Amino acid sequence: MPEGDTIHYAASKIRPVLEGHVPDSIETPHPRFGRDRWPEKLAGRAVRSVDAHGKHLFLRFEGGLTIHSHLRMTGKWRTRAADWPTPRNTWLIIRRGNMLVAQINGPVLELMTDSRTRFDRRLAMLGPDILAPELDERGILRRLREDDPTRTIGDALLDQRILAGIGNLWKVEGCFAAEIDPWRKTGDVSDEEVLKILRITRPRMQRSARDGMQDRFKEVYGTVGQNCPRCGALSKIRSRGQGDDNRITYWCPRCQH
After folding, report:
1. Which of 63, 141, 56 shows the shortest CA–CA distance to 107?
2. Residue 116 above 70 pLDDT?
3. What are the residues whose beta carbons fall under 8 Å from the beta carbon of 157, sequence distance 6 or more?
4. Cα first-last separation, the chain
C-alpha cells in the first residue's frame, strides 16, 4: 500500500543514489511527457534533496526545480541496478552510475518550475506528517477539533489536511490496536483516545519506513468474516465502506468501542 511509510521507505532508497549528485540521464518514456522536455530542463542539475511528507515525494533539483509525485493507489517507486528492465508503464527513469530510480504508473507526477512558492503552498495544505522527526500532536488535535465533529474517526484519520501519511490500512490497524471503534463520531472520541491511535500507529509505520515490511503489521485488514485476533471465536471481523471515497473499513464489533 503506498501510504506514508511506503513513501518514506522509497525516499530512503532514492536518497543515496541521487541526493547531492547530477544524474547521468533522465528519461520520461510515457507519451504524456513527450512535449515537457524534462531531460533538457533538468540536465546538469544536481538533486539537492529527496523529501517525503505524508504520501507526497519531492525530488528537489538545483535551480528551483522540483519533481513532485503522489502514487495514489497504483504507483510505485523502484530503485534498481541500471540494467533492470523497466516495465512498459514506467513514467520516469533517472540513472546515475550503476543504479536507476524509476516511477511506475504514478497518477501524479509533475515538474514544479516555481518550486519554493508551490512547494510551500502544497505542504501548508497538509497536516503534520505522522513520520516527522517529532510528532505534532497538538497540531493534529487542533485540526481534528476544527473539523466536523459528526464525522467518523476512521474517515477523519484519512484526511491528509488533518494528519498526513495514514492510509486505509493504517487507519484500520491503528483503530484495532487502540481498541477504538472506527465508526465513532470524532466528537465522541477523546483527545487521549486519538493520541492512543497515533502513538500505537507511529512506531509501526516508522519500522515499516525503515525496512519496507508493511505486511507484518496486518492483523485485521482484509480478514472479513474471520475470527477476531483478540476475541477469537467470540467475534468475527466485519467490513463496510466508509467516508466519501467508500474505503473499506475492517473492525471487530466486540472489542472496539
Report:
1. 56
2. no
3. 163, 166, 170, 171, 174, 175, 182, 197
4. 27
pLDDT-derived band at 124, boundaries 50, 70, 90: confident
Instruction: Give the list of residues 6+ apart from residue 17 with CB closer than 8 angstroms, or none.
Output: 79, 96, 97, 99, 101
* Mean pLDDT along residues 123-140: 94
Torsion-angle region of 20 (φ positive above 0: left; ψ -120 to 50: alpha; else: beta): left
What are the residue ranges spanned by the domains of the chain? Answer: 4-125, 137-251
pLDDT-based confidence at residue 21 (cuts at 50, 70, 90): very high
Q: Which three cell numbers stand for residue 92?
A: 520516469
Distances (CA, A) of 163 to 2, 85, 169, 199, 206: 16, 37, 15, 13, 15
State whether CATH 3.40.50.2000 applies to domain 137-251.
no
pLDDT confidence of residue 41: 95
DSSP state of 185: B
Q: Mind telling me the catalytic residues?
A: 2-3, 55, 247
77-90 pLDDT tens trace: 999 999 999 999 99
Assigned superfamily of 4-125: MutM-like, N-terminal (3.20.190.10)
Tell me the CB-side half-sphere exposure of residue 62, using CA atoms within 13 A.
Answer: 10
pLDDT at 35: 84
Predicted confidence at residue 55, as pLDDT, reads: 95
Q: Write out pLDDT tens, residues 204-242.
A: 999 999 999 999 999 999 999 999 999 999 999 999 999
Nearest residue to 76 via CA among 147, 20, 14, 164: 14
- Give the residue among 149, 167, 146 at the shortest CA–CA distance from 157: 167
Helix (H, G, I), strand (E, B) or coil at 118: helix
